[in-house]
What we know:
CATH topology: Maf protein
Organism: Pacificimonas pallii
Subcellular location: Cytoplasm
Largest sheet: 7 strands, mixed
Distance between the termini: 15 Å
Keywords: Cytoplasm, Hydrolase, Nucleotide metabolism
CATH architecture: Alpha-Beta Complex
Shape: elongated
Active site: 71 (proton acceptor)
Number of domains: 1
Radius of gyration: 17 Å
Strand content: 15-25%
Amino acid sequence: xxxxxxxxxxxxxxxxxxxxxxGVVPDRIQSPDIxxxxxxxxxxxxxxxxxxxxxxxxxxxxxxxxxxxxxxxxALGRRxxxxxxxxxxxxxxxxxxxxxxHRVFSGVALIAADGTLRRKLSESIVKFKRLSxxxxxxxxxxxxxxxxxxxxxIQGRAAALIPFMSGSYTGVVGLPLLETRTLLLTAGFHV
Length: 191
């Protein structure tokens, strides 16, 4: 059986780095262009799974290619936290999450060479310590939270602000490797 070619439907350098940890290098990378607006009343876990599947479906596949996509969604209760496009959003997210636990849903979707869509979802719990204004300001000033789900990167400076985490660390970073490996194995990859 020939090993299919892998297309990563993501522009995230973290997802490429995580795949490299398990010895996977995409043959092609293409960022999907989709509307990522949550539906009214959509639950965070459903949203993360839907986004991963829609990102995978948005990237054209050639013969013998599989498309892999992921989505990381941070939720405070039923509230989907926004991606941090600016410092004000980073600050607002950190204030909301200060001293509280939140959930991180990391959806991964793979469209196999035969067109079959398979999906997995990891769920993790992360707790921030109670953050002082100075800690929030320092994190915002670092610029690290820009472009990240809920304005933080657990693999960076934010790690020093998190006393508790349960679940998939790689899922919180951006791609749950256990679930991703399982999907790749079902599609014929040797991982």
